[in-house]
Structure formats: C-alpha cells, structure tokens
Amino acid sequence: MLAACFVLASPVLSASAQDAAATAAPTAPAAAAPAANVPLVGNAETGRQLTYTCQGCHGVDGYRNVYPHYHVPKIGGQSPEYLVNALHEYKRGTRRHPTMQAQAQSFTDQDIADIAAFLSELTK
C-alpha cells in the first residue's frame, strides 16, 4: 500500500509544465574549479599557529630542540620547497618517521603551504 501511495504522489509533468519549469529560473553557474598545478600561497601567520606542536621536538626558536641527544633536523630557515616536499613525503608515507607521518596526515595542502611560509622565514 505504501508503494502505491508513493507512485501516486510522484509528479508527472505535462509538456507545457516541463517547458515552464525549464524557463522559470536559470540555474547558477558552476563554481570555477581551481586550476591544476597552481602552487598554493602560504600564509605565515596561519603557519605560525599551526607549528605549535613542532616546537616540542624541533624547538624552532633558535633551531634548538628540547632533546639535544636526539637528532632532530633544523626546520626553521629551510626553503619553502624543501619543507613542502618533506611534509608531503611524510603524508604519503614515502618518508618514514611515525610521529611526522601522523602529524603530516592531519595537514591539508594549504596547511602545509602555510607552515612552510612561516618556518622558511625564521632566522637564528
């Protein structure tokens, strides 16, 4: 019985109703898709906010880390290209380090660009 009600309730448009519906309201144009292979522009201020967890190991400030007996690479002052590539490699799993892979998984491509913008501007 329920199926019969559904069939009876479904509208069937006549040819004139279809014509009226087609001309009634134009549809909004589709949003332009982002251009492929256009590098993202990083925002250093957003990157500064995103790097708060980096300081625990990398120390960022003056390139010092909190674990001097454990080798942690210098990330402050590196080129943005290096930083972007490294984070994408961690995210893909082609560069291995469990902590960095977990961190990179949480970042969007824009986050990575922002982080690279901030860290590349740091000096001693």
TrEMBL record:
Signal peptide: 1-17
Keyword line: Electron transport, Heme, Iron, Metal-binding, Signal, Transport
Keyword Metal-binding: yes
Domain called Cytochrome c: residue spans: 42-123
Domain of life, per lineage: Bacteria
UniProt KW Signal keyword: yes
Gene3D superfamilies: Cytochrome c-like domain
Annotated PANTHER family: CBB3-TYPE CYTOCHROME C OXIDASE SUBUNIT FIXP, CYTOCHROME C4
Protein name (database record): Cytochrome c
Native species: Luteimonas fraxinea
